[in-house]
Amino acid sequence: MENHYAHLLASDNVSGVHPEVMAKLAEVNRGHVPGYGADAVTAAALEQFRAVFGENSETLLLFNGTAANVLALKGMLQSHEALFCAEEAHLQVDECGAPEHYIGCKLIPVPAMRGKLTLARIEQLVAADLDVVHRSQPRVISLAQATERGAVYSLEELRAIGAFARQRGLLLHMDGARLANAVQALGVSFAEIVEGFDVLSFGGTKNGLMMAEAVVVLNPALRGAYPYIRKQGMQLASKQRFLAAQFLAYFENDLWRRNAGNANAMARRLASGLGSLNGVTLSAPVEINMVFAQVPTDWLDAVQRLTPCLVWPGDAFSEIRLVTSFDTRAEDIDNFVREFGRLSAR
Between helices 241-251 and 19-28, what is the axis angle to 10°? Predict the structure, then answer.
């Protein structure tokens, strides 16, 4: 019998492409235009980014998130310098060592609750290494908004870390793979959430695009090298209109907001349903489109048959992560919870 829930909640990378994005791709797929971004579609997309992030920002369109993070950092630090990030940050855990390999810099993982760096811990680590010739010199603080653990920094937390960075002459990078979900959760604008940051890795693929990410350089002093960094980093698309078209659709009619809003709402619905089941305990508040739950370890095989998901195994209980998407439907969630409930009824 077909499993209708297979991969449904495994990740927001497993969903398809939003129809409005597909329509925009089809719309621009006619005629011959200049390559490498010298076309009207790319110009319109870049103007939209400036409208969102400010006239002094510069945006470079890329294919994937690893490149967005690594190339963003390439323009921010040298090989003798260090970057501080949460110990569970994507940069630290899931980039296959790309930052260290490509930049030669040192990543310093910082213990963090639900992936959120605390100012006190950053202050300690920076003070320990600053001006010590035997150690990589502090240069960049990288925050994921939202984090790999589904947590969202408040504007107050971001401002405090930003003030510290400026005081110490450090640069701020934001990994915004799920930035739309965080912005929707906080009820603020993109510009408000990146205020004080120097460079942003801006995600779209996890929120309904086909394969489009961006580096947004917010600090004008850093802009000069990035076009060359993108080319050397093998991310300059010849048919760039097809990356640009995805972002045009993304910003038109607030598609990004509708997609993220649905994903977040479906996560809350999922958490409510799972939280009512015997044997299931929610691990953390649901802030974006991720649900973390503790389940009996002997359920894991059945859970993975229902939908593959990330697991942090334990003895009696293990933690699972379930992720909703822009196209997750309420009936999908309700039916999934009903199937999941059969585990607790065994």
Answer: 140
Q: How many CA atoms lie within 13 A of 202 on its CB side?
A: 29
> Counting beta carbons within 10 angstroms of the beta carbon of residue 300, is it exposed (0 to 12), middle (13 to 18) or buried (19 or more)?
middle
Asked if 338 and 274 touch (Cβ cutoff 8 Å), the reply is no
φ/ψ of 54, rounded to 5, equals 110, 150
Question: Does pLDDT of 119 surpass 50?
Answer: yes
Q: What is the C-alpha radius of gyration for the chain, rounded to an integer number of angstroms? A: 21
Q: Residue 115 — left, alpha, or beta (φ > 0 → left; ψ -120 to 50 → alpha)?
A: left
Which pLDDT does position 345 carry in this prediction?
A: 66
Residues forming beta bridges with residue 66, ordered by sequence position: none
Three-point CA angle 89, 12, 140, nearest 5°: 25
Q: How far is CA 343 from CA 136, 248, 294, 340, in A?
A: 50, 44, 13, 6
Are residues 87 and 234 in contact, defined by beta-carbon separation less than 8 angstroms?
no
DSSP three-state, residue 308: coil
At 184-233, the pLDDT tens digits run 999 999 999 999 999 999 999 999 999 999 999 999 999 999 999 999 99
Question: Is residue 285 classed as helix, strand or coil in its secondary structure?
Answer: coil
Q: Is 210 exposed, middle or buried (0-12, 13-18, 19+ CB in 10 A)?
A: middle
pLDDT band at 1 (very low <50, low <70, confident <90, very high): very low
List the alpha helices (DSSP H) in the chain: 19-28, 40-53, 65-74, 90-93, 98-103, 119-129, 155-168, 179-186, 190-193, 226-232, 241-251, 255-275, 300-306, 330-344
Structure letter (DSSP) for residue 136: P
Q: How far apart are CA 98 and CA 183, in angstroms?
A: 28
- pLDDT tens digits, residue range 132-164? 888 889 999 999 999 999 999 999 999 999 999
Pairing type for strands 58-62 and 290-296 reads unpaired
- HSE-CB at 68 with a 13 A cutoff on CA atoms is 30
